[in-house]
Every structure is written in structure tokens, then in C-alpha cells.
Amino acid sequence: MTKVIGVRFRQAGKIYFFAPGKYTDIKNTDHVIVETARGVEYGDVVLDLREVEDSKVVQPLKPIIRVADAADDEKNIQNHEKEREAYRVCLSKIAKHKLDMKLIKAEYTFDNNKVLFYFTADGRVDFRDLVKDLASVFRTRIELRQIGVRDEAKMMGGLGVCGRPLCCSSYMPEFIPVSIKMAKEQNLSLNPTKISGICGRLMCCLKYEEDTYEELNRKLPSVGDYVTTPDKLKGEVTSVSVLRQLVKVVVELDEDNKEVREYPVAELRFKPRRHNNKDNVDNSSKELQALESLEKKEARARNNE
Questions:
Q1: pTM of the model
Q2: 238 and 248 in contact (C-beta within 8 Å)?
Q3: N or C, which terminus of the chain has less Cβ within 10 Å?
């Protein structure tokens, strides 16, 4: 086991472990100065002193330089003000060089040894002249980093279709894999515009109830299956209610009469299905093409992340 302190550098960002050293009384509300791969940084303590398994720690573990004091807090505020100015300058330089890129954010390292500019673009961008121009203005190291649309949403924030702040920018430290299969599992509309977030990718919240729906769907027949009811009638399943675990069945009362009846799934007899996921997809070519395109985007996004 290794003693660590958990530090986060931006809201809903990944938590990094550092060696506490002599600072064993650090609390969650404290701020610290640490050395990272980017340089010296100002971070928020989100996990106080604790022991974690050695396998979860990337060695060598860097120590905390010091607990931030009032001067460090003031410098951090000044850095944020400088970032806003750097953002405006970079925007004007991008327009000057006529580059096809969208600037998302500018970040100073705490010691001002580097300025990072995050941007999105459809393809590769030759920004060598832009970097030279920016270096002549800021007189420090310049780094331009291309990010994906999900990272853009995480940095910018906003409101989802549910009316709440985006999950990725409010509490999710890392993105989770999401697939069209999850939307099918939950009987959601397969219209890409309805199951995509503001980033244009599948909504992360599709994953939240996936395990529950998989378990409930295993107990249900598929639409079109034939079942035997408690009153010894055989019928065809017309619809299922996953959460209520109810099944609507068309049963034949006699040669000329049929009736739709609803039964709890526990009262029906049927052959369990191996796959809980029957594709209720509108076979129109436009929707299928849109779904295929969305799935390809998801695969590329997962590979890039």
C-alpha cells in the first residue's frame, strides 16, 4: 500500500496522486502546488491522505511542493485573467493566418513557463507560423493541442437536453464508452438527434441504466414471440413494458375472436431469449445511414480518446 494525496486541476477532471511528504494534515478544502508533466501547477485537494494499492499508483510518485498560501491563490487568479487575454490574442492570430480551427481555451501553467491553447479542427492543421507568432507575443513556450468534440463540451460546459449541467463538465472525470445497442436496449428513439448530446456524440447517460435494462430484458419475451398464458391460452406478444415487467399478448378466445390482454411476465411460459435486444429500427435508408454514421463516429472517438 502507498500513501497518497488526490489532486484535481480542473472541475470534473481526472484525479492524480501525489506523495504527501511532510504534508500529512492536508484537507479536502486545501490547495497545493505540485510538479506535473506540464510544469508546476496549482491544484485542488479532493482526496485527503489515504493508502491505495500499489497497482493504482504510477511510479515514481511526485511529492507535493507546498500547500498554497495567499500569494499562490492570488497568482492563480491573475493567471486566469491572463488566460482570457491570451485567448483573445490567439483568436486574432488565427484569423490573421486564416487557419481552419476553432479555439476552445487558453491555459497558463502556474509558473507561466508554458501557455497551452486547446482547439478543434476537422483535420490536421499546419500551425507552425501561428506558434512562432504567439511565441513572439508571450515570450514563453507555446503548445497547441487538438482535442475532440467531447473534450470541447467538457471544457466549455453547458446544459443537456434534460435541463441539467452536462455530466462530463460537472462530475465525470473520464468518458465512458457508449453504443447504439444501449439505446436499443432501453427502447429509446433511434433518431440520432434525440440520443446525441450537444457534442454530437451519443449521450453519456445512456450508460447509466444499461445494466438494469439488460437484467430486466433477459426476463422478457421479444415482440412477436408466442407465449402460454396462465389461463392456458397461447398468444403472440405485441408489446412489453420493461420497467413494469408487463407483457401485452394477443390471445385467441375462439376461431373468430381475439383479445389483447396484459400479464406479468412471471405468469407467462415461454422460451427465454439469449439476446435481449431486438432491433426495432425503422428500415428507412436515411435513418439507417444516420445510425451507421453515428456508430462510426463513436468508434473513431473511442480510438482517439
A1: 0.75
A2: yes
A3: N
Q: Which helix (H) or strand (E) holds 297?
A: helix 285-304
Residue 32 amino acid letter: V
> What's the full length of the chain, in residues?
305
Residue from 154, 111, 150 nearest 12 by CA: 154
Coil vs helix vs strand at 203: coil
Pairing of strands 141-146, 114-120: parallel
Cα separation, 95 vs 83, in Å, equals: 18
Contact 106, 90 (CB under 8 A): yes
Q: Would the pLDDT of 139 be above 70?
A: yes
Residue identified by cell 401485452 is 248
Please write the tens of the pLDDT for every residue from 8-67: 998 888 899 998 888 888 888 899 999 988 889 999 999 888 888 888 888 888 889 999
pLDDT of residue 300: 62
> How far is it, in rounded angstroms, from Cα 32 to Cα 303?
33
Q: What confidence tens digit (pLDDT) does each residue in 169-181 have?
A: 998 888 888 888 8
* Strand-pair partners of 40: 35
In this structure, the number of other CB atoms found within 10 A of the CB of residue 290 comes to 15
Q: Which residues contact 85 (CB under 8 A, 6 or more apart)?
A: none
Question: In this structure, which amino acid lies at residue 98?
Answer: K
Q: What is the DSSP letter of 220?
A: S
Q: Give yes or no for a contact between 86 and 137, defined as CB atoms under 8 angstroms apart.
A: no
Average pLDDT of every residue of the chain: 86
- Output the CA–CA distances (angstroms, integers) from residue 92 to 86, 95, 102, 124, in the order listed: 10, 5, 12, 20
Q: Which of 210, 240, 227 lies closest to 272, judged by CA?
A: 227
The yes-or-no verdict on residue 185 having pLDDT over 60 is yes
**Residue 126 grid cell:** 499546419
